[in-house]
Amino acid sequence: MKTHDSPLARKLGAFVALSNSDLGVLSDLFRRRRRFVPRKDMIFEGQTNQSAYVMATGWACSYKLLKTGERQIVDFQIPGDFLGLRSVLFRTSDHNIQPITRVDASELTASDLLSAFQRTPRLATAVLWAASRDEAMVVEHLVGLGRRDAIERMAHFLLELYARLRLVGLADRLDYDCPLSQYMLADALGLSAVHVNRVLRQLRDEGLCTFKNGRVVFDNYDGLVDLAGFDRAYLDHEGPLLA
Amino acid sequence: MKTHDSPLARKLGAFVALSNSDLGVLSDLFRRRRRFVPRKDMIFEGQTNQSAYVMATGWACSYKLLKTGERQIVDFQIPGDFLGLRSVLFRTSDHNIQPITRVDASELTASDLLSAFQRTPRLATAVLWAASRDEAMVVEHLVGLGRRDAIERMAHFLLELYARLRLVGLADRLDYDCPLSQYMLADALGLSAVHVNRVLRQLRDEGLCTFKNGRVVFDNYDGLVDLAGFDRAYLDHEGPLLA
């Protein structure tokens, strides 16, 4: 895959028009490719001197374990996302990251980032934008847990994933492949697995959306957007802001 | 106030040892000082071409309004924090920011940031660290709403504020001034005001912490840390990582 076709370049390209020299710096960041197997943490809470990764293929989730043993999934990561960007900037990782499918990712250290920023400060602004977008998603999840009911939360979640996947070329017109189990959805949305099942059935019965056999299909996209109160501004996909 | 004494310099200094030239770039960012009055939004959701701010004095809160009119407070901002960093990188602000007290802040545009990063890429890495730290806090709030009960959530919140305030020189040994009302705590923690009142009384009755007349006093810091399962790693205050 050419650098300019990589999911990260597609994503950053939504914020900043990347020059050939920016793409050259990006492609240096992709040099140390690693492969990870499902269900084995690639970054874990409390780990020090951790690398970060840029995801090329696959799905992962970031989560925290509580002293009760409960798991809260914070977010899912898809191609083009940074894994553990905080871990590389902090001394100690404050969360776990686990591959859901096989994951191919490029390893980065803090000094890789610093030297990339030295070569192209525009890339620094783009990475700051990407990190801000990640934060905006966590904010939406927070608002969801605090103030949205179960069906709105699920609708919002499925719409957000669609917008993210589409940006990196992984969603079709109104559907996408999704390897997430109902248990994972439950741990992300603060619901029980039984509740997740009921909510998905309700979305299907109301003709809004079908999640079956690893595929999400929007049967009534506008209706779902309405139900979720979904506002795409926080994902900001309207084309480069910095020329 | 000298630049190296500013709350932002103190905060970024926890991540990167700032050189005189870094401090010079920072002090240019502080040139356009603005003043804001309490209870009047300084940034609002849906606003375009928004500036960001670096807070010098005061308290503010970032929040989202739902279509039901309910408010979810996402976080509180204190001196040294960026206000609306996402708003300046996104086309459209995805949240509101409102001063709680009088606020003095310096105005920044996206091009101010880009030019600062061009002059010192180390500063770009430090700002990315600060943004990552903000994200880590939102993650903790998410975990709180999803998986912590009311008293753990409150304990965690008061400990986090203390660590943040201490970093910028605004907390004493085991106490700090806090202008937040019980209504604000309720909207941040996903509780009712009555519930907030009950939880604060419980913390006081158990000899852990007293929040009265705008001042938080830790009566038993270690006990509170235990109760909250509070881990300071996500705030990362151990001194410069980048020499």
Automatic annotation (TrEMBL), chains A, B:
Pfam families for this protein: cNMP_binding, HTH_Crp_2
SMART domains reported for this sequence: cNMP
UniProt-listed GO biological process terms: regulation of DNA-templated transcription
Gene3D superfamilies: Jelly Rolls (2.60.120.10), Winged helix-like DNA-binding domain superfamily/Winged helix DNA-binding domain (1.10.10.10)
Domain HTH crp-type: 148-222
Protein name per its UniProtKB record: Crp/Fnr family transcriptional regulator
InterPro entries listed in its UniProt record: cNMP-bd_dom, cNMP-bd_dom_sf, HTH_CRP, RmlC-like_jellyroll, WH-like_DNA-bd_sf, WH_DNA-bd_sf
Segments passing through the bilayer: none
PROSITE patterns in alphabetical order: HTH_CRP_2
UniProt keyword terms in alphabetical order: DNA-binding, Transcription, Transcription regulation
GO molecular function: DNA binding
Signal peptide span: none
